Fold these 2 entries.
Entry 1:
Amino acid sequence: AAAPSIASFIQKIQEKKNIAALQIADIGSGGGCPGIPLAVAFPEQNFTLIERMEKRCGFLESAVCKMNLSNVNVNCIQADLIKPESFDIEVFRAFHPFDSKNTKLLLRMLKKGGILAAYKARAEKISAEMESIKFLVPSYKKIKLEVPFLEDHERNLVVVEK
């Protein structure tokens, strides 16, 4: 069986909630990855790039404008100032490790029935992080990723359902 993808997560939530356009956030967007590529791949969805650093926000706004991505909003704000239950799906690549404080913040921003998808590295590190927050996240999925040109570096997707 093929590994679940962001597309399958989108479809699952759309069917569960019976809505066409989901609210998807890239938390700590930085240079726009994975938010901008996902917005290009899923133009029918609504994306919010959350970034606290103004210089990065300027870059993100410029990129979104030049790429004419009408489905993307750049929100130059600290993640802890985001309204609770704002997003159906949250993705992040280099935001922070899963610890109690960050996990509470991520779950607070996520709508009930939503999915958190975190791009992570080594399985051992993931296991240690998730063990430390099992009181907040009793179960999760770890999906091994094959990344072109990074064959010698382990990459995984950690999926948490709220």
Note: Residues 54-66 form the longest helix (13 residues).
Entry 2:
Amino acid sequence: MLKKILALIAMLYAAACFAAVDVNKASAAELDGIKGIGPGISAKILDERKKGNFKDWTDFVDRVKGVGEGNAAKFSAEGLTVNGDSFKGVAPKPSAKASKAEAKAPKADAKAPAASADKDAAKQAKADAKAAKAAEKASKPKVAASK
């Protein structure tokens, strides 16, 4: 009976060691227990958490200096979570140039394919005319000027 109780306590202890640690609820000691997080990073995490809870992994990586996608993946593998979610990668931020380009881009409508086809036909006609002119020029005999 005593062996069963000790075995149960050992299993509960092992389960507690591998339990997930949520970054929004963990103490400094719990954060330090994650492999790769030391006192410096745990202090940065707690300082940023004072400003507000982390929404997701992207928010966590953006706000905590010294934590990038690589570290976030390692911390997640060691049991760190943000709002119960493990790290799956940070969504890329839309760049300012991309958002401006989308704003300036014309909206697609039913006439756009026809207009595109007309432009392609005009380009082809222009290229054909240029080729014909070059062929005509090449076929003319060159007269050498003699002195």
Note: The helical segments are 2-17, 28-32, 39-51, 57-63, 69-77, 96-104, 112-139.
